[in-house]
Design goal:
The chain is an alpha+beta fold and about 160 residues long. The strands form two sheets. Strands 1, 4, 5 and 6 form a four-stranded antiparallel β-sheet that branches. It has a two-stranded antiparallel ribbon with strand order 2-3.
Amino acid sequence: MTDRSLMEELETKTTSDRAPRQSREQSERPKVWQPASLLPEPDQQPGYAYRWIRVASAGKSDGQNLMSKRREGWEPVRIEEQPQFNGMTDPDSRYKDNIEVGGLLLCKAPKEMMDSRKEYFARKNQAQMDSVDNNFMRESDSRMPLFREKRSTTSFGSGNR
């Protein structure tokens, strides 16, 4: 047997032993069912932040919450701005031209204003934390410190050989 015929025989044998190649479509993972989210996600428009705001709870109107959010800068989103919500809104809604789902009204506000709001609350939170720390540390005494630096040592053998 020549080298050439031996190579051809080996090649035929190995190609017939191989598993058939699978395309990407065949090896794709099966789709997994997930429950639908309670609140649909709006299409994000540049420069705006979106939020669902409570306008009713347990069947009772909550106008006070809506008015406080409106004073913060949130304004209701009109149905024309988010056409994918057509037919999804509550039929008994008091806000016919807006998007209400389950007592929650979709609202938007300028992103700069919401970033400013976030910074305001971060500063307020930090001031409260500093106040608590200062009040706690005021009680500290050098003879009985509230925090003691704990140190541990590790030694290996006696050192004499």
